[in-house]
Design a protein that fits this description.
112 residues, mainly alpha, 2 helices, 0% strand, rod-shaped
């Protein structure tokens, strides 16, 4: 009878150990999955930030170039108009118009 009891005890111990291992393994795997998810999310966020920064820089450069071109064209137009106004004012001065009339017609200040 002692050998039967020992056998039952050993069997119960063995079953309990297996159950414990399964439970522990399942818990460990879940913790590992969760840790992996957190790490993956963190890496994904970081990669996303880096990609977003790179895209933002490229978009910013493109916008800056376009704005610069537009400003350059506007400045060029203004310079061209001013040069034409000055040339026109010179001709009017040569024709004998007074400075007040020249300034009014050309849009230039009298000093110019």
């Amino acid at each position: 009878e002692l050998s039967y009891q020992a056998s039952m005890y050993q069997s119960s111990y063995h079953d309990g150990r297996l159950d414990g291992e399964k439970t522990g393994m399942a818990a460990g795997m879940e913790k590992g999955r969760e840790a992996g998810r957190k790490e993956g999310r963190a890496e994904g966020r970081e990669e996303g930030r880096e990609e977003g920064k790179a895209e933002g820089r490229e978009e910013g450069k493109a916008e800056g170039r376009e704005e610069g071109k537009a400003e350059g064209r506007e400045e060029g137009r203004e310079e061209g108009l001013k040069e034409k106004a000055i040339a026109m004012a010179r001709v009017m001065k040569q024709k004998g118009l007074n400075l007040t009339d020249i300034a009014e017609i050309s849009g230039l200040p009298i000093e110019e």
